[in-house]
Amino acid sequence: MIDTPAARTQRLIEAWGHVTADSDRAEADPLVQDCARRLLTDPGGGTAYLWTFGLVRMAGYLAWQPGQEAARSALDALRAVDRALGDPPCAHPSHPYEGTLKGLLADEVWLAGPDLMSLVGPAAEDGAWRCPANVAGFARLTADVLAPFTVRGIPGLIPDAHTSSLSNLSSVLNGYPYGDPGEELSFQAGGLPRHPTQGVLAGHVVTLHASQWYATSGLITEKRVLDDMIAGLEAALPLLGDAPCARTVAEHPGLDSDPSGNARTGHLLRSPGGRAELRSWHADAPLERWLCHDFLRGLAHEALGKLRYARDSLFGIRDDRLLDAEYLRPDGRLDIGALTHCFDEAEYDTSWQAENAVRWAARRYAATEDGSPRERLVLLLLVLWCAGTAELAPDVGEEIRDLLVGSRTVPSDSACAHADAHPPEYPDFEAHLNHLYAPDEFDAPEEARGAGAWGCPATWPGWPRTRSRHWRDHGTRRTRRGRGRCP
């Protein structure tokens, strides 16, 4: 074979095509450095497109674990192209790099370059791919993939797939899921590639951290979803290493109070267009802090701790004895304040902690002797309170149903001597039950009543009977959020 310039170019193009994240440095680094050297020689010249797209083709390797010199020379060359070519006027209405911005899935710019063999040689057309504006655009995109937030001039064009994915996840985190919340969380958890870029790794961790509250709240009733999220974070941790960070905690990014806002940041971190959009929102803020491995490790460990604890609590064997220390005082009496506070929070947003607490209260009621009538009464009222207001997992509802069936001992039409001295129709349960159980410790609320009034059959006309009948006939029902709610 005659060793012509065209033949040498063809061999180079073929060699670039074999450089991937799995390549050996001894083979890949010389190819990268040779390409970067040629590009730096004339970054605005007529062959700059060839060497630029050569680096684009090898970006999968450069984004993973290249040699330091190869990584530095590649970035220097790409930035030189950006400076030399800029964004010159041309006759093209659009350029391929803009479509690439909308089509990327995980920063994989190396899959978006052209067929280089069609762009070289005397027969090649001088079209949009070879246009200096397109070459400069690809140089900026690739530099941003390799070193996020270090280049400017990238349009804030977010990949269509990311926009769709974020819309679905936001609907879950805002409580109005478009589809199955569990399927959506499992999908998000499985989105980490084997060789993620810096932006994709950061976005993955931030997104799962933003999503963990929903998974741990008890709204998810499938263990595999929590398993998937745990596996997704466990896959990220080894990639974050263990090197400390020189920044203080205050210098790390501040998370949004809205989980869906943090999920949006997580999605925007995963593409050049998304990162450009973040930059437009935060002006000159040091956005590279979102890539800090020490910061991301903290998020991953925090989310993992909550997910593992919730998985064990929601789907493991619930050992009620573990709650004795939380809800019993050293003298064996109820810590009524801790119990009612937990139930009060559950009235608005049931948590697995409240589910464990109501199960504990129901089992203690069943085990408490008649010699402790006030404690039995308060425990029963706690269960009735939670049953009437909170969303509960099906297995918890079934157990409470059994307790309520067993509590039907006095007919609701029995004679009552309390006249109108019953508790208010819509009491402040926390204040009333605290005072009812421990009147020496808690002030009497307005319309406070004694144990006789609270235990009177007329106080709760048919509560145990009505609710146990509903559970017997219908069990727990599914709400739009996928939970079982006590009817």
Main sheet record? 2 strands, antiparallel
Strand content: under 5%
The largest beta-sheet arranges its strands as 1-2
The quaternary structure here is: single chain
Structural features, described:
Strand 1 (477-478) and strand 2 (484-485) form a beta hairpin. With 487 residues, the protein is an all-alpha fold. It starts with a helix and ends with a strand. 57% of the residues lie in helices and 1% in strands. The protein has a two-stranded antiparallel sheet with strand order 1-2. Helix 8 (160-173) runs antiparallel to helix 12 and helix 9 (181-189) packs antiparallel against helix 10. The chain has helices at residues 5-17, 25-41, 48-57, 59-62, 68-85, 96-103, 132-146, 160-173, 181-189, 198-216, 223-240, 259-268, 272-282, 293-315, 321-327, 336-346, 352-367, 373-389, 394-406, 429-437, 451-455, 463-474; strands at residues 477-478, 484-485.
